[in-house]
Amino acid sequence: MPDFVPVLKKEDIGKAVASMARNISADYVDRDLTVIGVLNGAFIFMADLVRHLSIPVEIDFVRVASYGAGIESSGRIQLTKDVETNIKGRNLLIVEDIIDTGLTLSYLTDHLKSFGPHSIKICTLIDKRERRKTKIHVDYAGHVIKKGYLVGYGLDHAEKYRNLPEIYHLKF
Ligand code: 5GP
For the chain, what is the domain count? Predict the structure, then answer.
């Protein structure tokens, strides 16, 4: 059984989500916005984030597969569900649970650009920096960590632990 070392408690998550939502709401006043969640990991964070926004938004989702059931990114990114709304000319905000190498977001940003949106920004709950392999600009980050494999609040290990209300470092 692995150890679960607490990283973010409910209050920490709540504060980070509310603060990001305030900044996003201020930045998009009087502008359109489509919030695009990256399934599966972002589903809980996205649900909390959009409920804190004070501006009208459209919601869409994409799903990507990259990790398989392990804890190492395979580097092979597969889009298994695409956007379903019209995002041409729209301002997009991609919502991720965690950014590690950055390969998933580079791939997704390039993919979404092909629809001709007006702008694309990136929001992540966790910005994990040590293994970054691409140059991506993270516009809104809830919490920065160096390394470690995290679970809970949407983050899984082999599809388990997503339902934990707090975030833990999983130590094997
Ligand atoms: P990247 O392409 O940036 O290396 O990886 C992004 C994706 O890998 C995230 O959306 C997430 O699904 C997964 N991932 C990266 N680091 C972690 C982690 O610490 N815990 C979990 N559960 N997933 C992670």
Answer: 1
Res 76: pLDDT: 82
Atom of ligand 1 nearest to the CA of 101: 4
CA of 99 to the centre of ligand 1 (A): 6
Report residues whose beta carbon is within 6 angstroms of any ligand 1 atom. 38, 41, 66-67, 73, 96-104, 128, 149-151, 155-157
pTM of the model: 0.95
Q: What share of the chain is helix, strand, coil (3-state, %, to 5)?
A: 25, 35, 40
Predicted local distance difference test score (pLDDT) of residue 6: 97
Domain limits for position 137 = 10-147
Regions of the chain where pLDDT drops below 50: none
| β 78-81/58-65 pair status | antiparallel
